[in-house]
Design a protein that fits this description.
10 strands; 22 helices; Fumarate Reductase Iron-sulfur Protein, Chain B, domain 2; alpha/beta; four-stranded parallel beta sheet; disordered C terminus; 3 domains; Rossmann fold; globular
């Protein structure tokens, strides 16, 4: 993958792959046309230019810049549709008119759909015509990826995923990290079992920086008595094909997980905190098989824990503080899980002070949809964070939590950059820490686990005797 900086110096456009501009334009058009299905055509014909989506986008609200109005972000995609498939496209063909997209237009558009769109769906919710603008942006990214027009860092991450199915590393890297976490925290992490009822997946962020979260999650799954495993050849939940517009990679990563679940006889595939991993696997798996995937139940970890609380299988010690909650877009607005994290906060005995707005109308963290993987988008993202910061401050809550580790990572960076005094915490980690269980507590990393008293023995001793594949 090569980087070409031939765009004008005052623009932050990135080119990848050594292609003539004419070929980039042809590839972009072919990618756009491939997505002109019935839904996309209906949506693009339905827009009445009312402008209501403008007030839904935090990037537009934070800057006041008209270029960030959501419907504007799909203009080249819409133009290509009008000229090739729109109601009057026959006339264009009759007159010999061809799409006049230029490389400069596509370069400018690269910023709009990769830097200033999280595909969070708040604009979709606001649209009176029911246009799913977030989905149109996702579809438009297919053409941009085909043209090699995507941000540098996102392109590098996608390249790693293409080579080894995960930007984290190889299966051997994964196995080494899992054994390291076991040793650090004294917890059993079932790995590569030939048969299991549940396939658990993880994210690169958890494997790189949140080992305590992985250990706590394992402790909860053991407490619930689930027959589960991690698999070194199907561990990656985050789908960078989905985020970049590489549809082939998106399908490959999703099918890898479903096929592995079937191979080990799993009835359930658990998706971790990552938001778009949930959307790609739960809602789009059927696309790649050409039929519904009914034999594998795809569930979010928040669902699993909330249902266990409601069924009385999971109880927690009360935290006894007030809390405000950041609603992850893909879980809540586009995933239908609004009540699940609130069940968990009630189980922790926390007084929930909702932000305004919250739930399905809550603002995005600003990093989803691949924006966090895009270095040049950081200044714009920080402007949007001011909206979230004011909402958090207005609640006066003691704690600030979320149930998505991409949101957590984004907000953590923004909090550090702005000097905001309210740290962001993981709701899943709080459950792992305050769960009432007869399991010994996790040992502190880097320390030997004390043999006495008895309650300080390493966690997972019984589980470690189970057969591992």
């Amino acid at each position: 993958m090569t980087h070409d900086t031939s765009f004008p110096k005052h623009r932050s456009f990135d080119k990848h792959r050594s292609l003539p501009d004419e070929v980039r334009l042809e590839n972009a058009m072919a990618g756009f046309v491939a997505e002109f299905g019935p839904a996309a055509q209906t949506w693009m014909n339905a827009c009445v230019r009312c402008g209501l989506c403008a007030e839904a986008c935090h990037f537009h609200l934070a800057t006041g810049d008209a270029k960030y109005i959501p419907i504007h972000k799909i203009k080249p995609f819409e133009d290509a549709y009008s000229l090739t498939h729109g109601p009057f496209s026959w006339l264009n063909g009759l007159l010999g008119r061809k799409p006049k997209l230029t490389i400069e237009e596509l370069g400018e558009w690269e910023e709009l759909i990769y830097d200033s769109c999280n595909m969070c769906g708040r604009c979709t919710l606001a649209c009176p015509m029911g246009i799913d603008i977030a989905e149109l942006v996702k579809e438009a990214r297919r053409g941009m990826y085909a043209a090699g027009l995507l941000p540098d860092r996102l392109a590098r991450i996608v390249g790693n995923a293409e080579k080894q199915h995960s930007p984290f590393g190889t299966p051997e890297d994964f196995r080494r990290t899992i054994r390291k976490i076991e040793k650090e925290y004294g917890v059993s992490l079932p790995l590569d079992r030939e048969k299991a009822d549940v396939l658990m997946t993880l994210t690169p962020e958890e494997l790189e920086n949140r080992h305590l979260g992985v250990a706590g999650m394992a402790r909860v799954l053991h407490h619930l008595g689930l027959d589960w495993t991690l698999c070194s050849d199907a561990f990656e939940a985050t789908n960078f094909g989905y985020l970049s517009g590489n549809m082939e990679l998106q399908g490959e990563l999703t099918v890898r997980l479903i096929d592995k679940a079937r191979q080990i006889g799993a009835r359930m595939l658990i998706v971790p905190e990552c938001g778009h991993a949930w959307g790609a696997t739960r809602w789009e798996a059927a696309k790649w098989y050409g039929e519904p995937v009914n034999d594998i139940e795809v569930r979010h970890i928040v669902e699993v824990l909330a249902d266990a609380v409601e069924e009385g299988r999971l109880k927690c010690r009360p935290v006894g503080e007030s809390v405000t909650f950041h609603d992850p877009c893909q879980q809540i607005r586009r995933g239908g899980l609004e009540e699940k994290p609130r069940i968990l906060m009630r189980a922790l005995g926390m007084e929930l002070r909702e932000m305004d707005p919250h739930g399905t109308e809550g603002f995005c963290c600003g990093g989803g949809g691949g924006v966090l993987a895009n270095d040049r988008a950081a200044p714009l993202r920080l402007k949007a964070f001011e909206i979230k910061k004011r909402a958090v401050e207005a609640t006066g809550a003691d704690r600030f939590v979320t149930s998505c580790n991409i949101c957590e990572m984004t907000l953590e960076r923004d909090i550090t950059a702005t000097g905001f005094e309210k740290p962001i915490e993981s709701l899943i980690d709080l459950i792992g820490t305050h769960m009432i269980t007869d399991q010994p507590p996790l040992k502190a990393p880097g320390r030997r686990t004390a043999r006495k008293p008895a309650e300080r023995k390493p966690a997972g001793r019984k589980a470690s005797a189970r057969k591992k594949g």
